[in-house]
Design goal:
218 residues, mainly alpha, Serine Threonine Protein Phosphatase 5, Tetratricopeptide repeat, 2 domains, 77% helix
Length: 218
């Protein structure tokens, strides 16, 4: 009796499986094929992207090598390969280096055009390009900019050149007191403030900075 019941259960189970396969079998096969194809496509795309990035790295390093030996023409050619694609992760850096090579070769107009193109198409390096294009242009440093500290210091020096030392001192003090600023920048602000607004610094700090500059006596 038990054996008969087991056979009946197996028949029922097999019949259910056959019905499920009849209803969903083709769908399951199609999904499996789609997953395999999607995996293949993803792997191919990843390999292609990795190969492209390796090629771009090689081109960028070649450009840097040409800059290092003062081969401006070779550097410009290398960096131009990367600047033709503004979606490249090297676009901003390549544009800056291309402009540098153009300036070194005496092509100031070409460098200006490269800086202008960079400032129009790149949110990060574009701010730096604006500074390099026209050092005397008024700046409006934004905290969100990766060059906020550099822009602020540049703005301070612009004010110093204009004779507005009090306004410049406020900017330099803000940088000096900014705990997120690089230590080297904060130390530089101490030295700058001692020259243009020593009253902003404590007497003790002024004395320490003076002693640090004084020649050692044997």
């Amino acid at each position: 009796m038990n054996e008969l019941l087991r056979e009946i259960e197996e028949d029922i189970r097999r019949e259910r499986i056959d019905k499920l396969w009849g209803r969903f079998g083709k769908l399951m096969v199609g999904m499996s094929i789609a997953i395999v194809l999607a995996t293949v496509v993803i792997v191919i795309m990843q390999n292609a992207r990795r190969t492209r990035e390796e090629q771009q790295t090689a081109v960028f390093m070649r450009g840097m090598d040409r800059l290092g030996v003062a081969d401006d023409k070779g550097a410009i050619a290398a960096f131009t390969q990367l600047t033709n694609d503004d979606s490249s992760s090297y676009y901003g850096m390549a544009m800056l280096r291309k402009a540098q090579a153009q300036k070194d070769s005496g092509d100031k107009d070409g460098a200006a055009k490269t800086y202008a193109a960079l400032s129009a198409h790149d949110d990060a390096f574009g701010e730096l390009a604006k500074m390099l294009t026209n050092p005397d242009a008024p700046l409006n440093p934004q905290k969100s900019s990766p060059f906020y500290e550099s822009q602020s210091e540049w703005q301070g020096w612009q004010l110093v050149k204009q004779g507005k030392k009090d306004e410049a001192a406020k900017i330099f003090m803000a940088l000096r007191d900014d705990e997120n600023a690089p230590p080297s920048l904060r130390e530089r602000m101490d030295v700058v403030l001692q020259h243009i607004a020593p009253e902003k610094l404590s007497e003790k700090l002024n004395e320490e900075l003076t002693n640090a500059k004084a020649p050692a006596h044997e």
